[in-house]
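[job 0417] fold request received: M20/M25/M40 family metallo-hydrolase
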Amino acid sequence: MKKLILSLAAGCMFTTGYSQQVPQKEVARIINTLAADDMQGRQSGTPGSDKAAAFISEEFKKAGLLPLPGEQSYLQRFNYYGLHTTGSTLTVNGATKDWPVVAVGPSRHIQLHRDTTNCTEMRAGNVDELRAALSKRKSLQKNMIVWLAPSLSGYIANLEGSIASRMYASEQAVPADTAKWQMVLVLEKEPLSAQDNWSVEQTRSVRAQEFTNVAGMIKGETKPEEYVIYSGHYDHLGILPAEAGDSIANGADDDASGTTAVIMLANYFKKKHPARSLVFVAFTAEEMGGYGSSYFSGHMDPAKVVAMFNIEMIGKESKFGKNSAFITGFEKSDFGPILQKNLAGSEFRFYPDPYPEQNLFYRSDNANLAKVGVPAHTISTTQIDKDQFYHTVKDEVSTLDIKNITDIIKAIAVSSGTIVNGTSTPTRITPVAE
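[job 0417] inference complete; emitting C-alpha cells
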C-alpha cells in the first residue's frame, strides 16, 4: 500500500488514506438499497423508479453537490414522446377477449384478422422464440401476429415500454404513420386452433412521458468551464415472469453497481477541491433506448466535456481476474493509458474491451457524447458472454462481490486524478457522421 500511495502522489492530488474514503460498508448500504425489492425493479416511469431517484437525490444532497446550471434540484425532468394505446379490441369467434395486445412500430390504426391478406402467424413459447420473432420486425414483408405463451405475461409491460415504438425528443419528431406492414403481439391466454377466427383492432396516439435523471456537480476551482462526468444508469426492467416465486428484476449488477459507484465517487471528491468541474449523473431509461443520457448529452456542450467515466456492471470479477476492469472503446482515445499510468505501482489493470463483437461501446450511456467527439468510455467487469443473471430476476446483490465493487471504485477515483486536477486531458474521439 505504501508503494501505491507514493507512486500516485506525484500524478494525483490524493494522499494517504484514500481507501478509507471509499468504505465498503457504504458501498453495501447503497447497492442494497437500490436493488431492494421495494424498488420494484426501477423500471422508468414507475413508482419504483421515482423512489430510486428520490434516494439518489438525497445521497447527492448529503454529498454536498450543487444542482446543474439551470436546474433547481438534482432531479432533471424532461419529456419524450411516443405512441400510446387509446383503444384495443381482440375478438375470438366473435367473443371479446381481455388479452394484452402490443403493436410494434409507428402504426396509429391497426386492423388484422385471420383472413387478412398477407398476414402470417407465429407463436412464441419462450424468451428465445420471442426474440426471434421481434428480430423480424424491421424487415416485414407482410403483416404478422405473434401469439405469446401465458408464461411470457411478465414481459408485456417491458415490450410496451421498449419495443412497441421509439420515443422522440419532441412531438413533432414522431414520424408519420407510413408503415406498410404491421406486427402485433398478443398474449394467448387460451389455446387457439387453426379453425378459430380472430380479429385485432388497435388505435394509438402520440403522448408525452416524463423521465427523470438525477444529477449534481462540484464546481471546479481553476477550470470550472471544463467538465468531467461520472455516470451510471439507475433504471432496470421492473417486473418479469416469476421464477421460483420471484418476479422482481432487481438489477443489482445492471446497474445498481454503477449507480453506487457514482454516489461513492461524489462523496470521495467532495473535499478534493478539483480543478475541473465534476458532474455526477444517474441516468434513467437506458434500458428503453438511452433516453436519459440522450437528453443529458443534448444539454452539455461537448467541447467543454473533457472526459466521461460511464460505469456499467462492475459487480463481479472480470475475465481478467480481480483488480481489473475493461474499458469500452479503449483504442479510440488515450483515456485508458492515462488511467493506467495513474495507477502505476498498483496491481490494478484496465484492459481493452474483450467483447468487441457485442458492440458495448455504443450500447451504453457513454455513446451519445462519444459520437460527438468526447472521450466518453464505459468501465465494466461484466462477463457478458456467460452471465446467466443478466436481465433476469436473479440479478440480486447476493450474486455480487462487494469488495470487488469497492476496489474498482477506488481505482476509478485514483486513476481519474490527473484528469480531475487538470494535468491530463484525453485525446478526442473521432465523431460519428450522421
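[job 0417] notes: The chain has two domains: 2-66+219-420, 82-208. The radius of gyration is 23 Å.
[job 0417] exit 0
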